[in-house]
Amino acid sequence: MTLEIIDLTIIFHSFTLGPLSLSIDEGIMVVLGPTGSGKTTLINSIAGILSPDKGKIILDGLDITKIPIESRKVGYVFQDSALFPHLNVNQNILFGLTSREIQNEERIAMVRKIIGDLGIDNFLHRRIDGLSGGELQKVSLAQMLVRKPKIILLDEPLSHLDPPTRDKLRIELRSILKKQRIPAIYVTHFEDDVLALADSVSILNYGRLEGTGDLEQILNSSQPSSSFLSHLTSGTNYITGKVVKSEEGLTSFEIGSHLLYTLGEFPIGTKIGVILRHEDIILSKEKIKTSARNILFVQVTDIVYKSNVVDIHLKINELEIVSRITKLAMKDLDISINDNIYAIFKASAPHLVRKEN
Predict the structure, then answer these.
(1) What is the spatial distance between Cα 184 and Cα 178, in angstroms, rounded to a whole number?
(2) Where in the sequence is the domain holding 337, given as residue range(s)?
């Protein structure tokens, strides 16, 4: 399934989106940008809520630019759930399906699987007004998914949730969407949404597409293509690996031939993504006695001086990270490019942002 947007342009009185072109054929594309950048305008045009002034929208080889909303086979989850308060959870999920679809064994099996994947099977008969914000958005997802859309659009569906619920549901959401094997476009202004959800990223700013690419490509860019992207990539390392051991609240995960440690317990084989702040990495020329679990013998590949700090780029085989130190620390360490030194950080330093089996 492929969505292709070609030279899309939408003109308002004081704002113009585009012209922009992008495509997605699998996975989750996160469109990141500040408020007013045109993110919602973009997905509204894909859904058929807005008509573009120029350009084309091609879905699965069909030009849907002028096709009515109801004929597009596009799923949409809004910031606020669009559920019917007079119907219970189960009735909301099934609303819109024909009697023939409801009686079809294959469709009902699919509905049950979606409900199970979302973990909402224990409150199907509850009223909508008795649900939490996270539960409401899960029901909205289920209502959309049972209609078998060709592409999924999500307009900041977690933005109105409290931070703990948002963090928890953000990690669950990637697993839910990947299980459907349907391309998804998720628009947001939260940087953590990118790290937790994205396979690919597009940066939208003031109606212009400032960068697009795979997540790893975007995060590892040494010269970000936009100021907004620069803010996203500044100050953190993004590291992915596979869990090989997990017990007593400590997890070891494998990156190539190296093991790193983080807090928490996860099933063996789970793929996780963590962010590690540049400032949380301590550097030493000598191996020191420490309670820190992560001790890496690395090579200095680059040294970048900034206004008040120095970024030390480090590499050990396939793992590349950055440590940020003060200029005084740099003077005391007296390190140069190609030096071999120790990089040290505690197991509490890596912060989990992504988890998938």
Answers:
(1) 9
(2) 237-356
The Cα 239–Cα 274 span in angstroms is 5
Q: Among 175, 205, 235, give the residue marking a domain's end.
A: 235
First vs last C-alpha separation in the chain = 23
pLDDT band at 328 (very low <50, low <70, confident <90, very high): very high
Gap between the Cα atoms of 94 and 33, Å rounded: 34
Distinct helix (H) and strand (E) counts, the chain = 10, 20
Within 10 angstroms of residue 118's Cβ, the number of other Cβ atoms is: 20
Residue that terminates a domain, selected from 235, 256, 280: 235
Q: What is the pLDDT of residues 221-278, one digit of tens each?
A: 545 555 555 556 567 888 888 999 988 889 999 988 888 999 988 889 988 888 888 9
Look at residue 42 and give its three-state secondary structure.
helix
Q: Side chain identity at 77, as an amino acid letter?
A: V
Nearest-10 Cα torsion for 75, 229, 170, 45: -10
Same domain, 177 and 259: no
Q: Which two tokens stand for residue 202?
A: 């597009």
Least confident of 39-48, 236-245, 275-284: 236-245
- Residue ranges with strand state E in the chain: 3-11, 16-24, 28-32, 54-59, 62-63, 74-77, 151-155, 184-188, 200-205, 208-214, 236-247, 250-255, 258-263, 271-277, 282-284, 294-305, 309-316, 319-326, 340-345, 351-356
